[in-house]
């Protein structure tokens, strides 16, 4: 195995003078993707692939590069990403045109406005009682406008926001405190415990306590549903697992010969999940 490493490429550009014409000449400097930057094309490609394909945040890339002997600040990495995007804009435009020209797309989420009022009048979206998502303001507004349903703040996404206020040393304690509210059997008991935990945290972590005060109804919305359904309603994890299974199965096939082929495969996955879900509900 060859470990990854960085190397500095030094380009020697000796100056030469002519005694006859009294002029000095020098070889031109090699071109760089970003003018005035020391980053070569391979390093920029590494940063972009790590960021957008491997989902590696820039602060982690900073730590990795520092271990390799190159302490590149996050601000510099962010600047490289932005300027690289401008350079790659023609490629991005071609990819976007190709993707949007497809009849079928796979994505983890879709704009909620696909359920426009004219489509809703035909019955699409009717009967929705609860919508689970992160705290995206656009989604929250669309839930009340399009579905007239209750919005549930995904517990996993809320926990990430909450623990950001707790600090590294207090995350385990705060997480255990909040979990006591989720362990209650009734909505009333859960809300009472939630407020108790919020009051306990208020002297030491006021920002977290304020967040809990405003998020109480949204995070505990699922508690108004029957207990046997709550494990599937408090977060988007079941949907993300389903999307992951669809992605895994479709990537095995790669290229589908026609629309009916992908409809049969994805439809079979969804039917199997729906059947299993009904069976487990009946069993409980």
Topology (SSEs and partners):
Layout (H helix, E strand, L loop, with lengths): L14 E4 L4 E4 L14 H13 L4 H10 L6 H14 L1 H12 L16 H4 L9 E4 L3 H11 L2 E4 L1 H9 L7 H12 L4 H15 L4 H14 L17 H17 L5 H25 L1
Parallel strand pairs: 3-4
Antiparallel strand pairs: 1-2
Helix pairs in contact: 7-10, 8-9, 9-10, 11-12
Specify the structural class.
mainly alpha
Strand-and-helix sequence, N→C? EEHHHHHEHEHHHHHH
Helical content class: 40-55%
Computed over alpha carbons, the radius of gyration is 27 Å
Residue-averaged pLDDT, rounded?
82
- Discrete helix count: 12
Give the percentage of residues in beta strands.
5-15%
Major pleated sheet: 2 strands, antiparallel
Low-confidence stretches: 110-115, 279-284
Number of strands: 4
Task: Give, in spatial order, the strands making up the sheet with the most strands.
Answer: 1-2
Shape: extended
Oligomer: single chain
Through-space gap between termini = 52 Å
Main traits of this protein?
single chain, 284 residues, mainly alpha, two-stranded antiparallel ribbon, two-stranded parallel ribbon, 12 helices, 55% helix, extended, disordered C terminus
């Amino acid at each position: 195995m060859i470990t990854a490493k960085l190397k500095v490429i030094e380009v020697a550009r000796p100056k030469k003078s002519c005694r006859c014409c009294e002029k000095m000449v020098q070889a031109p400097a090699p071109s760089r993707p970003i003018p005035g930057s020391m980053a070569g094309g391979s390093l920029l490609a590494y940063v972009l692939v790590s960021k957008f394909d491997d989902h590696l945040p820039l602060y982690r890339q900073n730590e990795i590069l520092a271990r390799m002997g190159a302490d590149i600040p996050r601000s510099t990495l962010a600047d490289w990403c932005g300027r690289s995007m401008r350079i790659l804009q023609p490629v991005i435009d071609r990819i976007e045109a190709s993707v949007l020209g497809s009849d079928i797309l796979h994505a983890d989420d879709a704009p909620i406005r696909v359920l426009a009022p004219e489509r809703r009048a035909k019955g699409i979206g009717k009967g929705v009682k609860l919508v689970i998502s992160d705290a995206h303001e656009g989604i929250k507004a669309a839930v009340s406008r399009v579905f007239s349903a209750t919005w549930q703040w995904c517990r996993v996404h809320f926990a990430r926001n909450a623990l950001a206020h707790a600090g590294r040393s207090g995350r385990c304690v705060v997480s255990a405190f909040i979990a006591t509210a989720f362990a209650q059997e009734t909505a009333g008991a859960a809300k009472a415990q939630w407020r108790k935990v919020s009051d306990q945290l208020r002297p030491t972590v006021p920002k977290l306590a304020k967040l809990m005060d405003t998020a109480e109804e949204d995070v505990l919305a699922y508690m108004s549903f029957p207990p046997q359904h709550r494990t599937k309603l408090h977060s988007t994890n079941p949907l993300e697992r389903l999307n992951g299974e669809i992605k895994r199965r479709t990537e095995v096939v790669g290229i589908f010969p026609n629309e009916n082929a992908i409809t049969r495969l994805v439809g079979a996955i969804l039917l199997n999940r729906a059947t299993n879900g009904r069976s487990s509900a009946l069993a409980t």
